[in-house]
Amino acid sequence: MADINTETASQQLESKGFLDIAVSPELDLFLEIEKLKKEKNAVVLAHYYQDSDIQDVADYLGDSLGLAQQAAKTSADLIVFAGVHFMAETAKILNPNKKVVLPDLKAGCSLADSAPGYKFKAFREAHPDHVVISYINCKAEVKALSDIICTSSNAEKIVESLPKDQKIIFAPDRNLGAYLVKKTGRDMLLWDGSCMVHEIFSVERITKLKIRHPEAKVIAHPECEEPVLRLADFIGSTTGLLNYTKKDTAKEYIVVTETGILHQMQLASPEKTFIPGPPTNHCACNDCPHMKLNTLEKLYLCMKYEQPELLMDPALMAAARKPIERMLEISAQYGL
Ligand code: 13P
Ligand code: SF4
Description:
Layout: H1 2-16, H2 29-40, E1 42-47, H3 52-57, E2 60-62, H4 64-73, E3 78-82, H5 85-94, E4 99-101, H6 110-113, H7 117-126, E5 131-135, H8 140-144, E6 148-150, H9 155-160, E7 168-171, H10 174-184, E8 189-190, H11 203-212, E9 217-220, H12 226-229, E10 234-235, H13 238-247, E11 252-256, H14 262-268, E12 273-276, H15 296-305, H16 314-333
Parallel strand pairs: 1-2, 1-3, 3-4, 5-6, 5-7, 7-8, 9-10, 9-11, 11-12
Helix pairs in contact: 2-15, 4-5, 5-16
Bound molecules: 1,3-dihydroxyacetonephosphate and iron/sulfur cluster (SF4).
């Protein structure tokens, strides 16, 4: 269903010729974006995996939990979401009466794509006695079929908030799911999905890097596979990893997640060295191709023309809102 919305809006844009608009290289996009923010009472929410220029113009930069929390409390009229589709969907679900635009409607997510709504519905129906916890990296249809949403920042607390004997389905990330099984001791039924970026890191190449940089600490996102996580000195969400590098005393880090986060790490600790975690081959697969579809030019255009706009079915939004609100409530209880 979300894909149908996506296509409709893209077609609308193409018919208006919007995608062909060239941005003059003379234009100071940083200045123009600031002007548009004031003119339209717009807020730019961006994920850490965005290009550094986008990070620099964002009003709020954060991980998936922080972005959902900001979206829930914004007073802006226009929400400009620099991230991927499921993140903008979450902002729209929390603000059904506001306009939500994103630089590129085609910025998807391999993890969200691994759980189509119709397949997930059948899976849920086959296990009626299970509570469903879904990672926020999923389509609105999957959220609507879930009891509680979680992110990598609050997943452990959310699993532990349920009674010990409660049967749980965890979807769609099998790697985060396996990590949570290990951390909480809960025997959860895992959906078989994964992130194309976090699955590409090489144990062999990280080990070789460790030999060349013996003092470096390995820090990793829990979407990575178990053999990679076993090498990590610290595991956390993007915000968790960033905060760790600010407080920790090491001078060097091998950062095993998408490369976008290195920009903030370097800004916060200019005296430290951050080495991107190496992928299995010599591609740039540690850059998320979906996140990186967004550019400063596209961000400017989407603010100027307020397109592409994310349009969603009101009934789907209402159903998906409940488990997201549940997540926000539990997070607030834990001070997250
Ligand atoms: P967090 O934002 O929770 O760290 O998750 C990272 C991610 O993969 C987002 O797509
Ligand atoms: Fe999806 Fe992975 Fe890209 Fe995050 S990094 S948006 S989980 S494909």
